[in-house]
Amino acid sequence: MFAELSLATGLLLLSAxxxxxxxxxxxxxGGIVQLPALLIGLPNSPAAEVLGTNKLSAVFGTTTAAxxxxxxxxxDPKVLIGMAIPAFFxxxxxxxxxxxxxxxxxxxxxxxxxxxxxxxxxxxxxxxxLENLRHVPKQRIQIGAIAGAVIGFYDGIFGxxxxxxxxxxxxxxxxxxxxxxxxxxxxVNVATNVGALIVFGINGAVIWQIGIIMGxxxxxxxxxxxxxxIKGGSxxxxxxxxxxxxxxxxxxxxxxx
Length: 257
Prior knowledge:
257 residues
């Protein structure tokens, strides 16, 4: 299938996948680059097939980034597991409904939420610079599980802004530093990608050859982005997070109006 694409389209998809892996590994939001590129490059493919192929490519990068972060940053494994498992099932449930619920109906609400995320982060310059954990461990796991399920469902059915919402919960609600939040978010994002991918794959809504080839470009971007984030720490991650959220606001705003 990839061989049937024009050179220009192939380069577009590979470049977008690389950039998506780079951005996503730092602060999430890789979908704002990769998904539009797939929609442009595969104009005749059904929406579910484009979403499934996007998940396949993304799972390569998120898994790579998660592994690199885990070598340097060791967040509470109970929080990781407690958030990732509900996110997996939530994403699978969302993917089951992806072709039945019009995403256009969700855009105004998502736009408002993203604007709130950006304003809140901007007004709190010290947010997430240092780790200041809130709640007792059991409550952190419970909050993480609920957030994982809800955001996972959203990621399976729609997607844009998943990284922003995960990061905000981890930083503003649970008190993690941005760099630790990014490490946790990557693991949760692997779970959401795999959950949705299984559903799309079972339903034949994945272009495997294109997704796998793009996945290698995604890995390359994820390696560079993860190393840069670990070196730059929470200050860099916060800046990229804000930038990605603003770009998401513009993209969803254009699609809404």
